[in-house]
């Protein structure tokens, strides 16, 4: 097989531990399916601040740009929380999204059977929940001009939210296509009763909708969506929304599944290139203790296989291995009902490798 | 007693029905407690668009400005949803907030014992939930400059989010004071890792916090707050946040209590003046059928008594009457488990009046 290049960014906290397990899985798929991968490690986030004086070193960007895909563990931690803006891990995250043109963040929120009791929602409400949040990732208030100025009422801060038709159209069309491959329902979330950017957003959705006649579209106001996710989560299929609303709603959606430690995500640009990472954070409180659950990172690898490489067979095998290991009753401590029987990060990785 | 003037805005949908019941309660408190009220009705929202060609007629503002408080039913409906911006009910809502200087929106989210099964959250998670969202209401991206322009990538829309120190300080201090009268915990919600307005917000919170040494403050990022509301709702006491985040989080918080049809809200300015309204909307689908639940509006009146008039005795009596009627098993159809035993809007109003 052709050699695929993967940039591996372990990051901070539990990042290195979970990424190490995903790399074992990667190796295993080479043996079983004959894939060939070349991995290159790069520094990013807090560790890059410590070692290179910047969260996103030039070399890291170069490594990512020459790769076919990026696997990211997690970044951030209290150590860097009070740094100035340029020296914060989040600034690296925003920078890498922009530099790599990753305009679309896919956040599937599914309920794992073995975890449905972990949700704070009633099981009958959760039943059948399987949704995907498609979040615009390089526009909106995240990247608009921001500044301070002296106003008549004292110091003022300003953030600017900007969207152009082209940006909206590419993410909306992608969401329609994703819906076509799923249950063919698209909820476009905005605040069109207040925001001009939302009115533009809604116009674009309405203009392109006829190109996807098989997809049923509804417009949902963001405040109402925050409620409906709680009331009828299973009724959503694909949700498409702008950057800030997507940040909030994708986290709400992930949390209501009860499976947040198990969810994968993909950030995509033009073409097949993508950055894959677990939804969970760097969990500095449990870092270095072998307690982290590597499943979300391993499932992010499966998403990479399917989405960037077109390796459906390998992706299926990884997902099946995860299911089998869970069905056999193995749990890391975050998802174990009886903590005394919990297995470690590396034990979980080894079991999944063995099941492939 | 001194005559208190109340501007009554029935509005659209179920607004007139629920407001009528609150007015009966008002009369009853005059008889029982010797209060004296003068009510003046005014047109607002959809009905004002139909009859006066604008959602917020000048006369309505005049009536509100000469009153001590405003009671609002609900506004809006599909009939006006596709109108141009100037002819939409929401535009009236934003206009009245700004014109009356209502910079603070208080949204208590409590669980009514008789409704705890109505929540989609597990009862053990909901147990003890009693929180108050304090939302900034006249600033931020709602009121900043908004426009379209031609950009290099086609048409662009722009919204501007602006906050000055004075605006932030007055709402934050109010939230601290509210927390002092409650469980003394304040969660300030922002997105300081991305937004300049959030960084200003956080600076102000940190600067004024020492003036309220008895209040425990935590800063919570908005995406994390959307999750924590689901995971540990009972751990929140007062949440203070900017306009857009408050819109989303207050609706999420209301929905998770399962009691959304019963929640009151207050919008306050300088001094004791306030606008009081139920959290629920105009529910055009059930309007005019006697199905609406008047309790949220009646409880909004109690909130007005307590907050604007300092009529604690009357407020207590209204709240006790509502409790007694509910404890006796009376339910409107929205909260009835067995719909066949549900009583009508006016029956519920009459029972509460009789219980005062
Ligand atoms: C860390 C932060 C800047 C980031 C965001 O808001 O995009 C995070 O919350 C996420 O969702 O990836
Ligand atoms: C109707 C709309 C403009 C309004 C808002 O967003 O403020 C509503 O959602 C609310 O919360 O009162």
Automatic annotation (TrEMBL), chains A, B:
Name of the protein: 3-isopropylmalate dehydrogenase
Main function: Catalyzes the oxidation of 3-carboxy-2-hydroxy-4-methylpentanoate (3-isopropylmalate) to 3-carboxy-4-methyl-2-oxopentanoate. The product decarboxylates to 4-methyl-2 oxopentanoate.
Predominant location: cytoplasm
Binding positions (substrate): 97, 107, 135, 223
Coiled coil (residue ranges): none
HAMAP family assigned to the protein according to its UniProt record, in alphabetical order: LeuB_type1
Gene3D superfamilies: Isopropylmalate Dehydrogenase
Gene Ontology terms: biological process: L-leucine biosynthetic process
Cofactor(s) the protein requires to work: Mg(2+); Mn(2+)
Binding sites annotated in the UniProt record for NAD(+): 77-90, 281-293
Family listed: Belongs to the isocitrate and isopropylmalate dehydrogenases family. LeuB type 1 subfamily.
Xref: Pfam families: Iso_dh
Residues flagged as site, Important for catalysis: 142, 191
Alphabetized PANTHER family for the sequence: 3-ISOPROPYLMALATE DEHYDROGENASE
Pathway assigned to this chain's UniProt record: Amino-acid biosynthesis; L-leucine biosynthesis; L-leucine from 3-methyl-2-oxobutanoate: step 3/4
Cofactor note as given: Binds 1 Mg(2+) or Mn(2+) ion per subunit.
Domain Isopropylmalate dehydrogenase-like: 5-352
GO cellular component terms attached to this protein's record: cytosol
Organism listed in the record: Paenibacillus amylolyticus
Enzyme class: oxidoreductase
Location relative to the cell: Cytoplasm
Enzyme Commission identifier(s): 1.1.1.85
């Amino acid at each position: 097989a052709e050699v695929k290049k993967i940039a591996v960014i372990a990051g901070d906290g539990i990042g290195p531990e979970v990424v190490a397990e995903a790399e074992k899985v990667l190796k295993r798929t080479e043996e079983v399916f004959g894939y060939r991968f070349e991995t290159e490690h790069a520094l990013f986030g807090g560790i890059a601040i410590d070692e290179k004086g910047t969260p996103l070193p030039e070399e890291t960007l170069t490594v990512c740009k020459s790769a076919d895909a990026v696997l990211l563990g997690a970044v951030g931690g209290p150590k860097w929380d009070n740094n100035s803006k340029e020296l914060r891990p989040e600034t690296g995250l925003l920078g890498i999204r922009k530099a790599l043109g990753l305009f679309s963040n896919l956040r599937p929120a599914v309920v794992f059977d073995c975890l449905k009791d972990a949700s704070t929602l009633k099981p009958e409400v959760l039943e059948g929940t399987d949704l995907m949040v498609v979040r615009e990732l390089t526009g909106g208030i995240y990247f608009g001009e921001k500044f301070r100025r002296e106003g008549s009422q004292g110091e003022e801060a300003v953030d600017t939210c900007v969207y152009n038709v082209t940006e909206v159209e590419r993410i909306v069309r992608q969401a329609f296509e994703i819906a076509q491959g799923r249950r063919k329902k698209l909820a476009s979330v905005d605040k069109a009763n207040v925001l001009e950017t939302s009115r533009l957003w809604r116009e674009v959705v309405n203009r392109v909708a006829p190109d996807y006649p098989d997809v049923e579209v509804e417009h949902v106001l963001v405040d109402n969506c925050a409620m409906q996710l709680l009331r009828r989560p299973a009724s959503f299929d694909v949700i498409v929304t702008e950057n800030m609303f997507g940040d909030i709603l994708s986290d709400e959606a992930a949390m209501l599944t009860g499976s947040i430690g198990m969810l994968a995500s993909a950030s995509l640009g033009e073409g097949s290139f993508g950055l894959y990472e677990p939804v969970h954070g760097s969990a500095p409180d449990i870092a270095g203790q072998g307690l982290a659950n590597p499943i979300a990172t391993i499932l992010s690898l499966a998403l990479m296989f399917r989405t960037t490489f077109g390796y459906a067979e390998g992706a299926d095998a990884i997902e099946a291995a995860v299911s089998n290991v869970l069905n056999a009753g193995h749990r890391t401590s975050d998802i174990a009902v009886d903590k005394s029987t919990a297995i470690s990060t590396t034990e979980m990785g080894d079991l999944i490798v063995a099941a492939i």
